[in-house]
Design brief:
single chain, 724 residues, alpha/beta, eight-stranded mixed sheet
Length: 724
Amino acid sequence: MTQADFLEAPFPEAQTLPDLDLAGPRRFVNRELSWLGFNWRVLEEAENPRVPLLERLRFVSISATNLDEFYTVRVAGLRELVNEGVATPASDGLTPAEQLVLINADARKLLARQQEIFSDLKHEMAEQGLHIVTREDLSEADRAVLHRVFLEQVFPVLSPLAIDPAHPFPFIPNTGYALALELENRSDKRKLLALLPIPQQIDRFTALPAPDGQQRFLPLEELLLEHLPSLFPGFKLKGACGFRILRDSDLEVEDEAEDLVREFETALKRRRRGEVVRLTISAGAPARLLKMIQQELHVTGDEIVEIDGMLGLSDLSELVRDERPDLLWPAFAPRVPERVQDFEGDMFAAIRQKDMLLHHPYETFDMVVRFLHQAARDPNVVAIKQTLYRTSNDSPIVGALCEAAEEGKSVTALVELKARFDEAANIRQSRRLERAGAHVVYGFLNLKTHAKISTVVRREGDRLVTYTHYGTGNYHPITARIYTDLSFFTCDAALGRDATKVFNYLSGYVEPAELENLAISPISLKPKLLEMIDAEIEHAREGRPAEIWAKMNSLTEPDIIDALYRASSEGVKISLVIRGICCLRPGVTGLSDNIRVKSIVGRFLEHSRIVCFGNGFGLPHKKARVFISSADWMGRNLNRRVETLIEITNATVKAQITSQVMAANMADTAQSWVMAPDASFTREVLPEGTFSFNCHRFFMENPSLSGRGSAGASDVPKLTHTED
């Protein structure tokens, strides 16, 4: 089957949805329920027999982590609206209270399914010599080993707490896990209620001695229950349960904060004490303990979920260990682009030759780090400017910026303090940069800076040349190993001027005038998208090929969705690859006949944002208009963040994006889910023996076109791999 066979496949026949008013709010899918649907797809990868066993366990952990964050942010926000009496419906017509009811029902099913899948995986793991054991499985030799572990690694950080009028119920932090205990004094039969918070600073699982080829792990809560006599001498256990809480994690920052860093530090302390939004508790908990926990944490029945199984499945990631490579994805080493090798690692020389687009993680993110390290050490570099939204704790990016500042170069870093859950890390990074002599700015109080830009100004002869990196993902070398993103390197003067104007906007708050090849939100990005969609509509009306391809994480913005609906009704063919939330209904008769939507969930997390417009020539075509972006098509990205949309004009890079990246994403059947008009997703099912294309495998095996030492149209790899 050829690439053309995939790209020319007919759109599915549109369906009529009963009782759907095409102009009413139900033309949109509810954002929160769509997100839950995505997390169901993540969880279902844990059942995919083509996925290695421990990677399937990782998908359970990811699903659990995702759901935790969803509750601490999205559900917490809806609860606050309900508590304030807000009944304004979302774009789909559901009020906050109605959404909470639907979320609660679906999330409970999801939590139950996580436990069922984990139970099945435990049996499969045992067959492979990986055992999660309980206290009942321990031998005397095991107990001797565990006693030493308990005394040396656990006991010093424990705080067993009696609960009585003199010892009030303690504070349990977000994602905190504790054991609630009913104890009885052996001598006088006196009853005691107690709590044993489980330290979050200690690994959840302890490895036990095992025969060759076997591994055994004991959960920390089992280790604690085994050693209760050491913690409560003279008492015997009458009843116990575990419970875990999630708290509201939204930050509130004063609009007129004089010191933004100090205000965020204060807000982070307030977040720690946010209200409980979900309590999971062991099924069959003793009534007295359940009542005490419910009263002390001020939770209602709909916020309590009984779990018949293990609490805190996010911790299962600890069991995805390198000792069993046979149960993991095959090892994969990201490539160094041939062109960079041709220039012996000189990033500036490689970029000077021609614009270069790298596709991470298939091409190593080390090239971005090298770009900045080379700039830091190059005596001809005079200035570096950099945005930082999320990065690693010991960031080599920040290290390079500090080195450059210490070398006397002018370094400006835009550090976004409002990057949710990374606020504290970003405060640390900003102080590290300031100590090195960099100029640190924080952008706007009411706008997050989500753009991914880096500029290096280098003296070359009698002129200054600006080398620019535009990315679709964060400057985070760890997540760059598993997130698919694009890195665009250029020394195009216009794009360099555009980047400099954006930095001036971030530091001086003056809107940039006359951007040459760049659109930014909240000023021009959304209007640019609407303009380009309208242009495709005009091509369709004039009888020319009219087509849109787009790839992103989420699509929720009502104006953009309505524009796509209008384009569909005019005959524009629209193919969308949306990993997560999609509030657009595809394939509805009279509304979205010419729109198809798919989601790819696989080994890597799809994260790049791309949009291609046929421009009257169809796709793929050398005269198409091609853009990469930091922004998803969401209200927050288009209206409340600083984002970038860059038009790609280099012919080789355009061919790479359309004929390689986007074509492979749309051709994928091995990891793809297709969205139906009712917003459900089904995995693509092909007859046995039919070719099943895996885009992640394709990208791992084929170099990116623009990173080649010598590039041309003939270098575009064919989509020929079959699924094992």
